[in-house]
Task: inverse folding
C-alpha cells in the first residue's frame, strides 16, 4: 500500500499539481489538486501514513485549493476551495490554505455522503466500543478528543461521526484534530510529541491548528466500532469533574440535534439514532482538569 | 408498551413507528417524516387512533389505552387521555 510518506516530496508536489493524488480517509477517497506549498507540506506531515493512489479511476470527492485570480493572487494572497469545480466558500488568506482544505473536506462529506448518517461530534474507540462526544463550539470537545486520542483511545474522528445506518457501525476517518485558541497550548503541553501545524491566527474560528492523528488510529482506519457511550462534554473553568447519567430519552434528541442529514435519511435515520440511543449509555460530563477527565474515561472504558 | 412497528388498517404503509426509550417513546411519523419524543400515554393514544382507527375521544379510547398500558381505566386516566389528545391536536397529530 502506498502512503504519502512513501513518496518523495517532489512526487507528492507533482501529483498534487496535476491533480492525480488520491487520499483515503476511512471510507472516502479524495482526489486533490493544489499548487499551494503549504498544502503539500502539511499533507506530508499530517497525513504521512494515510494510503494514497496515483491516477485512480474513481474518487468520491474531487477538490482543489488554489490561489484566487486577480490582485489577490499577488497582494495578501488568498486561496479558494473547489469541490467538483464549484466554490462553496469565500476565499481565505493563503496562510489558512490547509485549514481551508480540512474544513472543505468536512463540508464535502457532510453535504453529500448520505449513504451514512453524519453527526457533528468527536468519536473515539476502545477496541470496537465507541464513545461519541457531541458538543457545540467552546465546550472542549476537540481538546478532550485530542487528549483521549493520545491516551489509550483510538481516534475515529474529531468532527464527524460516520454512522452506517444498515449496520450501526461507525467508520473511522482518522483525520487531523482541529484545536483552537487556548486548546493549542494545552494539547502541545499534554502531548509534546504530537505533530501539529503552525497556529494560524485570525480565522473565523479564532486561532487554529491541526494535530496529526496518532499512527495507530491511521493503521486501524478500517476497523469500525459500535456506539457504546454518548458523552456530552462541557469544559468550564474551575468546575469539578462530574459525570451525570442521561436517559435514552435525553440522548436521542441530542443525537438528532447534532446530525447533519437526519431528515435526509428519513426512517433509516430514525432507526439508526433511536437504536443508538437505546443501546448506548449517555452522560453529561463537566470538567476543567484534563487529567481528571482522562481518569473518568478510563473508568468508563472499564465499566 | 408499543412495539417498534405498527400496522395501520387504512394504509399499506404503517404510519407510526415507535421505539421505547426508557420512560419515553421515540415515534417516527412516516406520513410527515417528523420525529416525536412522546410519553408512553401519548404514544399509546396515537397508536390506538392510527393503528386501530379509534376515533372516539372518551370511553373507547381510554379502554384501549388502558389495555395497551396495563393500567386501570378510571377518571384519572380519562382526564390524562383528554389532556394528551389536546396536546396532539395542537401539534397537528390528531
Result:
Amino acid at each position: 500500500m502506498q502512503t504519502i510518506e512513501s513518496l518523495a516530496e517532489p512526487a507528492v508536489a507533482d501529483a498534487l499539481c496535476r491533480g492525480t493524488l488520491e487520499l483515503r480517509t476511512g471510507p472516502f477517497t479524495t482526489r486533490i489538486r493544489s499548487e499551494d506549498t503549504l498544502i503539500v507540506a502539511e499533507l506530508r506531515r499530517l497525513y504521512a501514513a494515510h494510503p494514497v493512489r496515483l491516477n485512480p479511476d474513481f474518487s468520491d470527492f474531487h477538490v482543489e485549493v488554489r490561489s484566487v485570480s486577480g490582485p489577490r493572487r499577488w497582494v495578501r494572497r488568498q486561496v479558494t476551495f473547489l469541490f467538483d469545480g464549484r466554490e462553496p466558500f469565500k476565499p481565505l488568506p493563503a496562510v489558512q490554505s490547509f485549514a481551508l482544505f480540512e474544513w472543505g473536506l468536512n463540508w464535502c462529506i457532510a453535504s453529500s455522503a448520505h449513504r451514512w448518517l453524519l453527526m457533528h461530534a468527536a468519536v473515539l474507540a476502545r477496541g470496537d466500543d465507541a464513545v461519541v462526544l457531541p458538543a457545540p463550539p467552546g465546550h472542549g470537545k476537540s481538546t478532550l478528543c485530542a487528549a483521549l486520542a493520545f491516551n489509550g483511545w483510538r481516534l475515529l474522528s474529531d468532527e464527524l461521526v460516520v454512522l452506517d445506518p444498515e449496520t450501526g457501525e461507525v467508520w473511522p476517518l482518522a483525520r487531523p484534530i482541529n484545536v483552537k485558541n487556548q486548546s493549542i497550548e494545552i494539547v502541545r503541553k499534554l502531548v509534546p510529541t504530537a505533530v501539529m501545524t503552525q497556529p494560524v491566527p485570525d480565522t473565523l474560528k479564532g486561532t487554529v491548528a491541526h494535530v496529526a492523528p496518532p499512527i495507530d488510529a491511521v493503521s486501524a482506519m478500517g476497523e469500525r466500532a459500535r456506539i457504546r457511550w454518548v458523552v456530552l462534554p462541557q469544559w468550564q473553568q474551575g468546575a469539578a469533574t462530574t459525570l451525570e447519567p442521561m436517559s435514552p430519552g435525553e440522548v436521542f434528541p441530542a443525537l438528532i440535534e447534532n446530525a447533519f442529514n437526519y431528515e435526509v435519511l428519513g426512517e433509516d435515520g430514525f432507526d439508526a439514532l433511536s437504536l443508538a440511543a437505546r443501546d448506548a449509555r449517555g452522560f453529561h460530563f463537566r470538567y476543567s482538569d484534563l487529567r481528571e477527565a482522562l481518569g473518568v474515561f478510563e473508568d468508563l472504558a472499564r465499566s | 408498551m408499543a412495539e417498534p412497528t405498527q400496522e395501520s388498517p387504512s394504509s399499506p404503509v404503517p404510519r407510526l413507528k415507535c421505539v421505547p426509550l426508557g420512560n419515553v417513546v421515540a415515534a417516527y411519523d412516516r406520513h410527515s417524516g417528523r420525529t416525536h419524543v412522546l410519553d408512553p400515554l401519548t404514544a399509546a393514544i396515537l397508536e390506538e387512533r392510527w393503528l386501530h382507527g379509534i376515533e372516539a375521544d372518551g370511553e373507547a379510547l381510554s379502554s384501549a389505552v388502558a389495555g395497551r398500558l396495563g393500567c386501570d381505566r378510571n377518571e384519572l386516566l380519562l382526564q390524562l387521555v383528554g389532556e394528551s389528545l389536546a396536546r396532539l391536536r395542537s401539534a397537528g397529530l390528531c
Observations:
- The two ends of chain B are 20 Å apart (CA to CA).
- Chain B is about 45% helix and 20% strand.
